[in-house]
Amino acid sequence: MYEIEADSRTNRLYLNFTGRMDREEMETAADETVETAERLREGFDIINDLSGFTPPSPEAAEPIKRAQAELKEMGVDRVVRVTDEETSQVVVNAFERRSRDVGYSGETADSVAEAERTLDEQDVSGYASA
Question: What is the per-residue DSSP string for 50-106?
Fold first, then answer.
């Protein structure tokens, strides 16, 4: 299951992935992520809540990298991934590896509220291009 929301006021894309998703659902989520990001201005940030996400199969994970590449081309700036003690390190490492492959790196936070504070309090212009 997933939820995707764009906040044009803060120029942030909110993603929430929970449970296990098959390739078809990941394809749909990837497409919706990119479509939703089109509502935001260049330099948008992403808060990606992975705290309830189960590692997908390698085939199901392929759409993630495609979407990450498209988001990078659209001008994503900072990405904060929300994790907790239950979040599989496999998920965290896979998202980071794929994002680095397309040219950006992510930060982590323990909650969506912490991720929002991180983005509000720390201006790291061009973080994704680092």
Answer: EEEEPPPPHHHHHHHHHHHHHHHHHT---EEEE--TTS-HHHHHHHHHHHHHHT---
What is the spatial distance between Cα 21 and Cα 89, in angstroms, rounded to a whole number?
17
The CA-atom distances, in angstroms, between 101 and each of 27, 66, 68 are: 19, 11, 9
pLDDT in tens, 88-121: 777 788 788 888 888 888 899 999 999 999 999 8
* C-alpha to C-alpha distance for 28 and 18, rounded to whole angstroms: 15
- Please choose, from the candidates 100, 77, 99, 67, the residue with its C-alpha nearest in 3D space to the C-alpha of residue 12: 77
Beta bridge partners of 15: 4, 48
The chain-wide mean pLDDT, for the chain, equals 88
Please give the radius of gyration of the chain, using alpha carbons only, rounded to the nearest integer.
Answer: 13
Query: What is the rounded distance in angstroms from the CA atom of residue 127 to the CA atom of residue 28?
Result: 27
